[in-house]
Design goal:
The complex is a heterodimer.
Chain A (H helix, E strand, L loop, with lengths): L4 E3 L2 E4 L5 E6 L6 E7 L6 E7 L2 E5 L6 E5 L5 E5 L8 E8 L7 E2 L3 E5 L1
Chain B lengths: L4 E3 L2 E5 L4 E6 L5 E9 L6 E6 L5 E4 L2 E6 L4 E6 L8 E9 L8 E3 L3 E6 L1
The chains are: A mainly beta, B mainly beta.
């Protein structure tokens, strides 16, 4: 039973570019949440998807957008990348929004 | 308390020591408190989800308590082992409205257990 998988594992971009990160949830899970983790901080909630719609959103600008597909997989898109977007991006899935979340290994995004 | 705060930030103990850390969170509109263990080069692993005031949960040598009225949770590790070395994260979920299901994480407690 595959857990949460994220791709790619590492990514290097330059300022102003756009990036798409991908996440496949654990089998049987229908809710996907995205987090940004900067060095020395806990994960910061970006948004949550359920039934292909954004249900919750944290304090992130509109440059951060996402999508959930009918198979529950999800993408995180970030436009007009800034140096401050360099972070580990974690995807987590759960059966419903109030159950323990299962995390992927994350995508390490570096902005030059 | 407006945010989720964890203390201490880091902790070094000897193998066999028992230890505990604290998570403080807003006591209003409480829904759930999550604990996760995050080992280096791995993904965070769920330990407990606690919802009721006075709740106590146990998993092997690790246990946790919850006080929703005063807004804190304790995580205890009995007889620490080197493999317990990890960052321990707590996360708070609000009840109702648009914040339902959103987890707010603390900054974590980094535990190092020395052989």
């Amino acid at each position: 039973d595959a857990g949460v998988t994220q791709s790619p594992t590492h990514l290097i971009k330059t300022r102003g570019q756009q990036v798409t990160l991908r996440c496949s949830p654990k089998s049987g899970h229908d809710t996907v949440s995205w987090y940004q983790q900067a060095l020395g901080q806990g994960p910061q909630f970006i948004f949550q998807y359920y039934e292909e719609e954004e249900r919750q959103r944290g304090n992130f600008p509109d440059r951060f957008s996402g999508h959930q597909f009918p198979n529950y997989s999800s993408e995180l898109n970030v436009n007009a990348l800034l140096l401050g977007d360099s972070a580990l991006y974690l995807c987590a899935s759960s059966r419903t929004s109030n159950q323990p979340q299962h995390f992927g290994d994350g995508t390490r995004l570096s902005i030059l | 308390i407006l945010n989720v705060e964890q203390s201490p930030q880091s902790l070094h103990v000897q193998e066999g020591d028992s230890t505990n850390f604290t998570c403080s969170f807003p006591s209003s509109n409480f829904y759930a408190l999550h604990w996760y263990r995050w080992e280096t080069a791995k993904s965070p692993e769920a330990l407990f989800v606690m919802t009721l005031n006075g709740d106590e949960k146990k998993k092997g040598r690790i246990s946790a308590t919850l006080n929703t009225k005063e807004g804190y949770s304790y995580l205890y590790i009995k007889g620490s082992q080197p493999e317990d070395s990890a960052t321990y994260l707590c996360a708070h979920a609000n009840a109702g409205g648009t914040s339902y299901g959103k987890l707010t994480f603390g900054q974590g407690t980094i535990l190092t257990v020395h052989p």
